[in-house]
Q: What sequence folds into this?
């Protein structure tokens, strides 16, 4: 790429949104061109840009000494560099979005999703990127100010990386600081995205009432600034609905989604992709409410729309077919559900090939349908087939492969093949612990499943030890009141009940109930279920 003549300060903002490797590449290319060019004017220009890189931490570690060396080569003064930085502070992103640097968009990936790229097999790299970006953000903050959009952008990405690693408290700390900064500056444009991030982290922390309250505030602000029909407003309303679904406040979520469907239908049409996506979310609410007829009716509409617009061979169509199959299964229409899942598998196999990861995922769904239909041995046979193909294809450490191993472990458990189930589930626990962390919600759930297999195996002392350690790690990583931790505690209380250790069960259920009442309230389904569990054990104690 040719960067001769580039004014870096005018392009720093758009590059702050990009993959950090691009910024490193730009700085390295400026150096390379400095050394190879014979043009003295070009050398002077490039050396000034390199001095700016070192002074601001852009693509290079912050170094005042290196900055001064390159500044001397440029023939310019420190005052010139300070003036350049001050000029950069005054520039807003829309003013230079279409300048020379846009040609980089043809050569590199902008708006990189680090969390997606590194989330499974490269957690060490993900952590290292976070460290490097933190250092870069500090340097940029010193040069341009803590409230400058470039500084906020980099810190926002750091928080997202912490979130991806399950370090929710650290992410929330950064995001709360950023929220105060953008509010002080007057929330507009990019700052509105910063507001939305915090609600996602509160939700991940299990602070659902706080997440719901915050997302309501954000939604009101978006509606006031952008209007109720703006796409940004609809996106934050979707986030709010998702939180309400997590809290099982389904009536409120339904109301929001009905409103979104009405707006999108009016603006874009009943069968626009965005409208169908909101309808799909609404159908999911009906499903969770047990409103099978409403869910089936809406899912049938969605499927018909996607078949008409996208055809039978589109991924979204297959997704809709699987959702409809799940609803039929819940209605007891097991044969119909099995036939539809089989059709999805055959469509994927024909379009993508039998070994494609999505085809294998479909085959796994079909296997699960066999299990729901009481064909447990057939389910196991198909899952074994899927697992073998995944290990040969995407590899033993791919997330899809791990999910299949977990499903096969559950199947073996249902077949009373406890020794085989324990071996497989231990693999799942090991993988999730290494990749996601031992206190991550998915790891805690996997360890709980292992503990239940050990209970079925008759190895109660080991099962209890595993579950106590699971709870301890969960509390250490996520706090005493996180939903994932409470699920682990409830599971241990249930195990105690199975082992007829009723006093221990009663005490632990009571502890869970107190926390859920304090955080969720009496009317929440989780609180109500725990209250019933407490009463059940209390009744059993009374009969002794």
A:
């Amino acid at each position: 790429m040719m960067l001769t003549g580039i004014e870096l300060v005018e392009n720093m903002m758009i590059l702050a949104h990009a993959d950090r490797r691009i910024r490193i590449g730009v700085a390295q290319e400026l150096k390379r061109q400095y050394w190879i060019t014979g043009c003295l004017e070009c050398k002077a220009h490039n050396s000034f840009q390199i001095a700016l890189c070192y002074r601001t931490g852009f693509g290079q570690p912050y170094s005042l000494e290196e900055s001064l060396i390159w500044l001397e080569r440029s023939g310019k003064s420190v005052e010139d560099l300070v003036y350049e930085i001050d000029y950069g502070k005054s520039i807003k992103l829309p003013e230079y979005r279409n300048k020379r640097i846009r040609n980089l968009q043809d050569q590199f990936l902008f708006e990189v999703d680090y969390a997606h790229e590194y989330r499974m097999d490269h957690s060490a790299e993900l952590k290292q990127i976070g460290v490097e970006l933190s250092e870069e953000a500090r340097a940029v903050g010193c040069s341009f100010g803590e409230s400058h959009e470039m500084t906020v952008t980099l810190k926002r990405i750091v928080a997202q990386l912490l979130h991806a690693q399950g370090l929710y408290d650290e992410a929330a700390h950064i995001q709360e600081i950023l929220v105060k900064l953008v509010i002080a500056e007057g929330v507009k444009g990019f700052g509105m995205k910063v507001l939305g991030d915090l609600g996602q982290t509160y939700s991940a922390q299990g602070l659902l009432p706080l997440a719901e309250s915050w997302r309501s505030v954000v939604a009101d602000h978006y509606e006031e600034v952008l209007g109720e029909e703006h796409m940004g407003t609809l996106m934050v309303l979707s986030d709010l609905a998702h939180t309400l679904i997590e809290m099982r406040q389904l009536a409120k979520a339904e109301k929001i989604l009905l409103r979104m469907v009405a707006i999108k239908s009016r603006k874009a049409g009943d069968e626009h992709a965005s409208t169908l996506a909101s309808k799909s979310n609404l159908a999911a609410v009906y499903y969770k409410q047990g409103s099978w007829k409403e869910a089936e009716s809406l899912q049938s509409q969605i499927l018909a729309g996607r078949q008409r617009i996208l055809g039978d061979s589109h991924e979204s169509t297959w997704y809709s077919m699987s959702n409809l199959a799940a609803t039929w299964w819940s209605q007891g229409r097991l044969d119909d559900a099995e036939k539809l899942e089989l059709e999805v598998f055959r469509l994927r196999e024909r379009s993508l090939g039998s070994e494609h990861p999505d085809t294998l995922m479909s085959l796994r769904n079909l296997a699960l349908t066999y299990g729901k239909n009481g064909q447990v041995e057939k389910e196991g046979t198909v899952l074994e087939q899927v697992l073998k193909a995944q290990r040969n294809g995407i590899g033993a450490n791919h997330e899809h492969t791990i999910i299949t191993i977990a499903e096969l472990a559950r199947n073996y458990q249902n077949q009373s093949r406890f020794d085989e189930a324990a071996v497989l589930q231990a693999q799942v626990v090991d993988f999730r612990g290494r990749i996601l962390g031992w206190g991550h919600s998915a790891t805690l759930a996997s360890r709980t499943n292992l503990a239940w297999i050990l209970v079925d195996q008759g190895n109660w002392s080991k099962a209890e030890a595993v579950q106590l350690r699971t709870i301890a790690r969960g509390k250490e990583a996520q706090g005493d009141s996180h939903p994932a931790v409470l699920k682990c505690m409830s599971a241990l209380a249930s195990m105690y009940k199975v082992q007829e250790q009723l006093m221990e069960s009663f005490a632990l259920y009571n502890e869970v109930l107190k926390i859920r009442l304090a955080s969720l309230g009496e009317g929440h389904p989780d609180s109500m279920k725990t209250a019933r569990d407490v009463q059940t054990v209390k009744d059993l104690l009374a009969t002794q």
